[in-house]
Here is the input.
Amino acid sequence: MILDTAKLVFAGAVGAGKTTAIRSIADGAPVSTDVPMTDGAHGDKTTTTVALDFSEVILDDGTPLLVYGLPGQDHFSFMRPIVIKGAIGVIVLLDARDTEIGNRCEHWVRSIREIDPTMAIGIGVTQVDRSPNFGLADVREAIRRCGSSVPVFTLDPRDKDQTSH
Here is the structure.
């Protein structure tokens, strides 16, 4: 079945790779609302998304996939239901270096389930190459606490092949 359009949303904490993922899969230059971080750099990240990121990807069957990235800060949480409405799914990106990755995972899964209890969710873990002791146990436990069945995978959001499959 070919849809007129499909919509996919990237969500997750600041610095998890949402903007980078969208840039890597975009067929054109994405619309981005990144601004310099007012509270200083977060690792090597010096900008942050304050509204949303947006781009389009044409799927193999010709369907336009509208790709959105949510800001990671909780004070922009009012944007979540607006952007998620009508999506076919949400990919939550988590940073493997985050010592609170399990809590962050639970927060995002619960937030999305509050907006749409039936929304398809996938969890993508980034920065695994920079976190040699990382394991998926905390993420999987967080998903169990949410009572969800959610696929978990690792990816490098800079890599179009990893991000688009």
